Amino acid sequence: MSRPIFKVDSFTDRAFAGNPAGVCLLDAARSEAWMQSVAAEMNVAETAFLVPRGEVFDLRWFTPTVEVDLCGHATLASAHVLWEEKILAPDVPAQFSTRSGMLTAVQERGSIVLDFPAEPPEETAAPVDLAKAIGAPLAYCGRNRMDYLVEVADEATVRGVHPAPSALLPYPCRGVIVTARAANGEFDFVSRFFAPAAGVDEDPVTGSAHCALGPYWAGKLGRSSLTGYQASARGGIVKVRVEGDRVRLIGKAVTVLRGTLVV
User: Fold this and answer.
1) Looking at the structure, do residues 207 and 155 belong to the same domain, yes or no?
2) How many whole angstroms separate alpha carbon 263 and alpha carbon 261?
3) 105: domain range?
4) 46 is known as an active-site residue
5) Does the pTM of the predicted model rise above 0.85?
6) Of 41, 46, 55, 186, which residue is the catalytic one?
7) Which segments within the chain are labelled E, that is strand?
8) pLDDT tens, 98-141?
């Protein structure tokens, strides 16, 4: 079997920035073990696997070590590939059936808009030693079905934390989102995301984390339209619109590699 496979930088308008994702276009479902092996071979935060089913695509996401329930940047990359390769017409929405329900993407003024579930955190007591693991005092600690979200003092603190992956492994979650109010008016908030339990020590730009960050900062700032900057080494911009129990994640993508998977 040979199938087209792509590498796409998401939540950026230039190559070698944002978050790289693999996108593999399949003509039929393959085994989880096979997809996990391909994801390990691609060795990026997530690789997306798409299988057409009428007007909908079955979509699954794998890190190099595990399957995940929700992934924004690889969904953005998938929609980008479907339009760029002319599998879908530019005005046709991309529809994905996933472990987190039906997700859609449309093109809007040169960007891609993802319709995702809101995943607001609920305030909770911080687990023992989480502040020590992060390396900074916590102004807030919350939890949703996937991650912990912690607010720290300021943007400089977000940029300066360097948690050891082993220090975060004991916590029963996919990962930890660290966030603060942005230091200038270009962005509303900044964040970083650490997910060693999923095989990703630090994710460059995490769309699904903004399903929590959007509702959290919308509540604090009193606005439903926000712009976040994920302050990883590669960096990326995620615009967010909070609409009830849904979140619109808005970004761009750039294809950096087209190839053929021959096994």
Assistant:
1) yes
2) 6
3) 3-115+249-261
4) yes
5) yes
6) 46
7) 3-10, 19-25, 46-53, 56-62, 67-68, 94-98, 101-108, 111-117, 122-123, 140-143, 147-151, 175-181, 189-195, 200-203, 225-230, 236-243, 246-251, 253-261
8) 999 999 999 999 999 999 999 999 999 999 899 999 999 999 99
